[in-house]
Amino acid sequence: MILEVNKLRKEVSSGESKLVILDDVSFNLLEGQSLAITGPSGSGKSTLLGLLAGLDTATSGEIYLNGEALHELDEEQRALLRKEKVGFVFQSFELLPSLTALENVMLPSELKAEDEPEERAKYFLDRVGLNERKHHYPNQLSGGEQQRVAIARAFACSAKILFADEPTGNLDPKNGEIVSDLLFEVNSETDNALVVVTHDHDLADRCDKKINLKLGKIVE
Amino acid sequence: MLFNLSFKIFQRELRSGYLTSMLVSLVLAITIVSGISLFTDRLEKALSAETEEFLGGNLKFESNQNTAKSKIQRQDFQDIDFMEMVLFASVIFSEEEMQLSSVKAVDNAYPLIGELELKDKSGKFLSKESPELGTVWMDARLQNLLNLSYGDKIFLGDSEFIFAATILYEPDRASGNFAFAPKTIMNFEDVDSTNIIQPGSRVEYNYLFKGPEDEIVNVRNYLETIKENGDDIEVLSEDSSSLGRTIDRSENFFLLGGLIAVLLSACTVGIASQRFTRRHVSYVAMLKTLGMKTTQIRTMYFLLFLFMTFLTLLFGLILGWTLQSQFINLMSSYFPTELPSPGYYPILITCLTVLICQFGFIYPHITKLITISPMRVLKDDVSFDYGFIPVLLMGLAAFFLLLYLYTNQLTLSLIIFFGVIGFSALGIGSIYLLLGKNKTGLGASSPILLALSELRRRKFGNSFQIFAFTIAIGLTLITFSASQNLLGSWQTSIPEDSPNNFAINITPQDKENMQSFLQENDIKSKPFYPVTNAIIFKKDEQNEDDKIDRNFNITWIEELPEQNDILKGEWFDKNLNNGISVSDDISERYKLEIGDEVFIKVGEEVIKSYVQSTRTVNWDNFSPNFFIIGHPSLFKDISSTYITSFYIPSDKQYLAADLMREFRTVSVFSIEELIEQIKEIIEQVTQALNSILLLTSLSALFLAFSALQDGFSVRKHQSAVLRTLGASNSLIKQSTLFEFTLLGLISGTLGALVAYAGIYFIETRVFETTASFYPEISIMGPLLGIIVVSSLCYYLISGITRQSPKKLLMQ
After folding, report:
1. Does the pLDDT of residue B344 top 90, yes or no?
2. pLDDT at residue number B503
């Protein structure tokens, strides 16, 4: 089991009252499986993704990621877990504007102090078809190209599980298709699990499992 | 509509806290500028009144003859008050004792300015009148020496007088060459009856004038036409007392502190404006999309900054007024009466400063902001040209204007301006050279590699930050050193054991006995200098035109006196044909060059010599100092008296009276009161200096903080991405700390260099002293840079790492 979630709850303070973002969320995911999290805006999809990836902490409940109790780890331990086992693709790409495409992809390997990060980054940039543009900065690339760099970066970190938050949300249909093809193609070449938050039904339909959130609860 | 919208944005900006650094900087600058200019304005007015009182009028004419009075009276000067006094030294007898006294006989217009504080058997009282006929007032020292009670008789020449009151304070303390001896004041109309003044008597006539400035100029012009050799004209601005210089220098320091605070605040405002502009790009694009015209948007922002100006001026002026009140309170004991109200100039200069800051550092950003394309609403990546060059040029122009506004000297402003630009170019150049080219990758595997990579990658941004830190550190160090320089020079000028008594008229017969007396009583004295009165002729002693129009007390010695430094030529040497040494100011005033032939007339004897050297003299060292010093070989046939100064500790004050009793012809006068007064002023000014130093440091801290905060908005996103990818908080913190420690070190080192250059100019040009070297600056600069920058950086990066990366990415 790569991911196990039990009775997850997330509350935030809103003035004097408390707002429940997620309530009683439980599911699991096996190695190599893909999962789509869908639901209307404000249903708690991105919050759930953040909790699963250890970017945020839950109010209660348990998350086991690759066997490790994420809910018991502090920020530094969660960072270590992310570095070793988690990859990300964001809707807004989140590339560092001061780094070239190549340098952005090198980042995970550099953080792990792996040998030859440049070679590894070049391989994944080539895999997403951007070898020719590796020395370009993000502002010199189109939205689709930036997302492809983000995918290369996510796979370059040899993660066990990849989290993608609306990966096609900022792209036109054509580029959206290219990006989702790439995401599943490269993922199939690895044994990674994939968790995708999306509004895109086509993308959701390509996943092995789907959960639909409504007002913070799983409805199907 | 625009007004309301603008006011709403202003309120929102205030609430958001984004404007805080800009507002606080402006308020701080206004506080310092208005506080200082209000204070110095009032201080100048008070000092002018004080100097008037010290002089006894707006103008004083000193003459050895009484012929001037009739000439002056024939001139019908409008709105001029005029008084006459005659000064001479005479022995006064009481029933039991006798004592040499400096006598001042004053007419009925006395005192022209201020009032006397007297004491009689009914107690202390103030007087604006001259003594009644047949009475005299004496200072406490003379009263004690003559053993007098109020109403006792004293004898002066052929007349007898009643001792009516003790003088506690007299306004015209600067009067006369006879002021060394204990003082007596009598009525001018009583002088004739004493028969003391006879043809050939050594007497000085003083004529004091009070009136409007332009009329005083007329009086002065007239006096120049009747002035004879030995006559002297004194006006207010020529006050060169230690106290005057102390206040002058501290005033210069206050203005310097003001300028530095303004420059620091201006830089902060510039940074804050840039941030403000970035934040408003989308907002302006949206307003344009909704159909708002460029002129309307311009007006809206103009109004917004107008609100800000009013708010900052309001708070700044209130705080400035409080600040100057604190300064005035500190120095209130020095000024016996309430200080005059300030004029409009301080408010004007404050408003002008704010205006220049607005136009130089805010307006260019707003002008660029309103050029943003409405397409920005649709496409985030529509570039926004910040127009670096025009913004920089406007900023530099404002920087120069502020410099000129505060220094009022074009050359000095140009020197500082190009100095700052030169150092910045040097700093930026060295950063580029030092860091070299970018290497591939971020080096995120270790904190040091990551820090070095960040330094290389952000060369331009870092250069700007280094510029801001350098300015902040350099200017703080300049302020610190300037205050140390002032305090140091004052403290060293008045060491604990600086002489507090002068003795003159020491005859050659008394010299050895007096030296023994001082030695026996363990009193340290300065050397005994022979002294005589002489007239100097340039070139031809027969030609009256070559006569230098004043008398000199000259001495002759072999050793160069302490705190005298040879400027040109050589000091006396037994292997040379020795001449005379002239002080630099006399050499300059009378155009006496090295090698010039001079004739020294002492009594009827004329000595031919030449100018062998010129020297600088420290007139503040409470030792006998001389304009002209000759070699002893020239004066071996000249008879003289001796002069010396010595320090009597407070527990041995009785020795002064003992000494005067034992050596009746010797005149001893105490300067203890003057030294105490100067020490007190220094203490009060020190507190004011420290307040300025504190406020300037605060401005520097704000600048450093703003520069850092600006850079950290970019780091927020990077840190979030790195942490999402698994970078630990400690990696982010350590690398950022290392990076900024290095930046602090570089800025601190450059700041120390800026300070060295700045201090050199300030000491030589503003304070008009010799430049000193402050070794502590080379340590303080880098240390200050490292501590301040890394502490601020730690505060900011901790704020970022405390937030979850998800939250940061969502921002």
Report:
1. no
2. 85
